[in-house]
Design a protein that fits this description.
Layout lengths: L2 H14 L6 H5 L13 H11 L3 H9 L3 H10 L7 H10 L3 H12 L5 H8 L5 H17 L5 H14 L5 H15 L3 H15 L4 H14 L2 H11 L6
């Protein structure tokens, strides 16, 4: 099917499912952006399944700048074909946390460049590029089953370095990454809690919040019990 026809069909699917009446309530949760259509994630996933993997279509959808089209682009893109330059350009194009997190959890997560981008973006000045580093790290902590503990331990200094960033979308992603690393297994739980204690000692308001929130979850009985079961360790007497 010609490229222009594929793009027209994709845009028609997006427009058919638009929910403009939802935009105001979505904005209250920081889900914003020009030309937003108000689509839900289940609908966008269904559209992506209908369209199928199509990297060229993904690039065209991204160029529309419509937030929902960009989320669908992340679902359609071939991670192996995403170049470093394209990933950087997409990260700079993030203007809402949902687009950032969804693309990090789809195309970026499966890219062989994912870990390199965590390191490269973690000190970036732009808010959503920096968020992308830690949203991607948080997602890798859940889904990259082959990564050794050492790879996550090596990423903890990046978390600590960003903990003083008081921008809301960065702060929450840094916290998210720290918590997810600490929920991966017992050894990483201990390493993440030690990192949280060092973050707390930084003394800034964002660092204190990140540390307190992470420690609250990582030290909780629910998380500790889940890690014990996963490792086969007996419950302490």
């Amino acid at each position: 099917m010609p490229h222009t026809t594929r793009l027209a069909d994709a845009m028609a699917l997006l427009q058919q499912n638009a929910r403009p009446e939802e935009l105001a309530s979505m904005a209250r949760f920081g889900i914003v952006g020009d030309n937003r259509l108000g689509l839900s994630m289940p609908v966008m996933r269904r559209i992506a399944r209908t369209l199928g993997r199509d990297h060229d279509l993904a690039l065209a959808l991204w160029d529309t700048t419509i937030p929902e089209a960009r989320i669908v682009a992340g679902l359609l893109a071939d991670p192996a074909r995403l170049t470093s330059r394209q990933m950087d350009a997409w990260a700079r194009g993030f203007a809402s946390w949902d687009v950032c997190d969804q693309v990090c959890g789809s195309a970026f997560l499966a890219s062989p460049l994912a870990w390199n981008k965590v390191a490269a973006w973690s000190a970036h000045e732009e808010e959503f590029v920096r968020r992308a580093a830690f949203a991607l790290l948080a997602t890798l902590a859940v889904h990259d089953k082959q990564a050794p503990d050492a790879q996550f331990i090596a990423a903890l200094p990046l978390v600590e370095s960003a903990a003083a960033d008081g921008r809301n979308f960065v702060k929450k992603a840094v916290n998210w990454a720290l918590r997810n690393i600490g929920k991966r297994n017992g050894a990483l739980n201990a390493a993440a809690r030690e990192a949280a204690l060092r973050i707390r000692q930084q003394g800034t308001q964002p660092a204190r919040w990140i540390a307190a929130d992470a420690l609250r979850e990582l030290e909780s009985e629910a998380v500790q019990e889940r890690l014990r079961k996963r490792s086969g360790r007996p419950r302490p007497a």
